[in-house]
Amino acid sequence: xxxxxxxxxxxxxxxxxxxxxxxxxxxxxxxxxxxxxxxxxxxxxxxxxxxxxxxxxxxxxxxxxxxxxxxxxxxxxxxxxxxxxxxxxxxxxxxxxxxxxxxxxxxxxxxxxxxxxxxxxxxxxxxxxxxxxxxxxxxxxxxxxxxxxxxxxxxxxxxxxxxxxxxxxxxxxxxxxxxxxxxxxxxxxxxxxxxxxxxxxxxxxxxxxxxxxxxxxxxxxxxxxxxxxxxxxxxxxxxxxxxxxxxxxxxxxxxxxxxxxxxxxxxxxxxxxxxxxxxxxxxxxxxxxxxxxxxxxxxxxxxxxxxxxxxxxxxxxxxxxxxxxxxxxxxxxxxxxxxxxxxxxxxxxxxxxxxxxxxxxxxxxxxxxxxxxxxxxxxxxxxxxxxxxxxxxxxxxxxxxxxxxxxxxxxxxxxxxxxxxxxxxxxxxxxxxxxxxxxxxxxxxxxxxxxxxxxxxxxxxxxxxxxxxxxxxxxxxxxxxxxxxxxxxxxxxxxxxxxxxxxxxxxxxxxxxxxxxxxxxxxxxxxxxxxxxxxxxxxxxxxxxx
Length: 546
Hints:
Blueprint: H1 25-40, H2 49-68, H3 81-97, H4 116-135, H5 138-142, H6 146-150, H7 168-175, H8 177-187, H9 194-204, H10 208-212, E1 219-222, E2 225-230, E3 240-243, H11 246-267, H12 273-278, H13 297-311, H14 320-331, H15 336-343, H16 348-366, E4 371-372, H17 392-402, E5 407-409, E6 412-414, H18 417-420, E7 437-439, H19 444-459, H20 464-490, H21 494-498, H22 511-514, H23 519-528, H24 530-545
Antiparallel strand pairs: 1-2, 2-3, 4-7, 5-6, 6-7
Helix pairs in contact: 1-2, 2-4, 8-13, 9-11, 14-16, 15-16, 19-20
């Protein structure tokens, strides 16, 4: 198959895709048709990874049928459910026992071992190709049994692994000047830029691919500020810029000079302005006379792993530098919106993936700094913790212990075990007068507003007797609030608890807050269009159920 025929050329790949390793003509044709439809569609992949996965799955299936099925599997009409089931069982056995593949060979000439990842890729790829043939009627024309196709299980998605930030000891070792010099001397003797790449990753928090693919003109000064231009979108748009420290600017400027000298030494002249615009900062050494192709991730990660192994730091990956930077930004007051914009994330949810360890520190402790509620014998009495600040380890241990015996309630938590276990409340949910009701640090602002509300009611009372009654009625709750504030202050968490307020002035610039409607107008619209809305929601519900 020639991808150029479809107007597609994958990065760093030839246009020719060889499918001859698939023995059966019918299976090869199914894969060819599937790949052709994929490259013609709007969802054509940006890289050749998806193409390689589909080819690998069909090759594995074809090689197994060649030795196991009647007639080598060349007649699709004789294939039954048991043939697919044996292929599935063989793949799982090879995964379990770390046995080699029966169809593929690696660059060393030896067959690679079947792993969980490769087995998952094979299952998903074969299922995708065969299900596509089943849906468009091709399988029926071939005489391919339906149960043969449906017996292929889904491989499932790759597990999501949340990378941890670098531990303090590892971070210091990876940034130590002596260790960095060792990285350059031992693992990059030809000075291709291994150390420069790593320092750029650590300093900016960029993805490794973003640093590897930097253009030669990736730095510049604008208004006297050192700026760093890179491809943040992963689609070749080098239009994102961030500020960088002077030390990194000088490091990359020196790398620019070295790359320019390599071009001049190769061609006997300096590059033209057009050539400089297309040059990369870290060019590969082979088949790259114009220096437009960057070093590969494989080259970088090989040297990085050898260096980390030499430092005896355990299992570390470069992407953890991104998590470390995001965590440090949050600790120094940056919001998720700031972090998302700096890291180039699409949403705050993606940014949370990088900073969940830090945000959970505060939430766990605030949710489990407990004081007795207003219905207890001693309102405001500290139930868990100490008057002196907790260490981080103590706070985490406290959170794990208390989170197993409570359930959320309005303005606090209920610790009555029958209710925690799912039973009905014997006091009709009268939480605020119950001695099993406790307050957490995250509830402080809620109860402060309650206190202000009661004070306003007392001030507006028609006479002193009514005002005194209101003050006395709320007095146990006020004592509980005072005790909560003292407990948080003793743990140095009072300021953090007061900062947990989402209704800050800047949040009102959001369109959700700035767009308003009169309640009377909404009520009238609801009365006049009730039937129309009911029919619309019924239709939507029907589509959802379908």
